[in-house]
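REVIEWER CHECKLIST
Item 1: Sequence provided? yes
Item 2: Single chain? yes
Item 3: Sequence as submitted:
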Amino acid sequence: MKKRSLLLILALCFTVLGFTATLVIKGSNTIFPIAQVWIEHLSALKPELEITLEGAGSSTGISALFSGTCDIANSSRWLKTGEIEKMATEKKYFMPVIVGYDGIALIVNKELGIDSISIDNLKAIYTGKAKTWNQIDPNLPKQAIMAYSRNTASGTFEIFSEKVLGGEKMSPQIRLIESTQLEIESVGRNPYAIAYVGIGYVTEQVKALTVEGVLPSRETILSSAYPISRPLYLFIDVTKGFPGTGPVRDYLLFALSKTGQELLEEAGYIAAYGF
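Item 4: Structure as written out by the authors:
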């Protein structure tokens, strides 16, 4: 009887005081603004859910999933071979969930007289073979190209390296930046700058170029006509099975819901699912 009374008291305490569930999300800077919006809306629906979010690159999220220091890893790239091998070694399984699609936009200063660029020219810039703008187009000024890139922890860096550089190394002269927002600001300030960012980050501060004559848009990204397109993932640890209840499940269901997908599109990305 005493044991039952204690359990009843505890139950009443949780009801009155509320029970806080925690969720830790780390990883991709590309997905960061989408996750911020999802968290804001989900927190209004579930105030008992305490969510923390960090955006320092896809690799940091996946690394945190291995170490058990996050519940969900945001990633703008697929798993690397080494990560898949590590899962096998540690007998873990990370389940991918595609939440949307993105195009990596090439941005320049709005004053630069260029509207389109080819993959070959991008490769020449980022491997250091082309150093001035007139080498890309003789009508452009003979001014040094100020090229910016995300750092090596970034999934955007990985995809750009794969689809544009084709295995060649990026020039050490390229300025590596941790923050996508800083890329936008740097290009906005420098008339001879170029950078690449997720389409959702493009603002009026900069100009997005066509790549191989194609602008990143909903249609061109979904059809892969835009040459630098990619899916966006959430990875969760399902080594012990898919979470049937709890904050991870709640977050996934919201992200994939009609509201979650509409919010993703409002943030400038392409929904993975139609309703």
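Item 5: Key structural point noted by reviewer: The chain has two domains: 22-100+231-271, 102-229.
Item 6: Recommendation: ____
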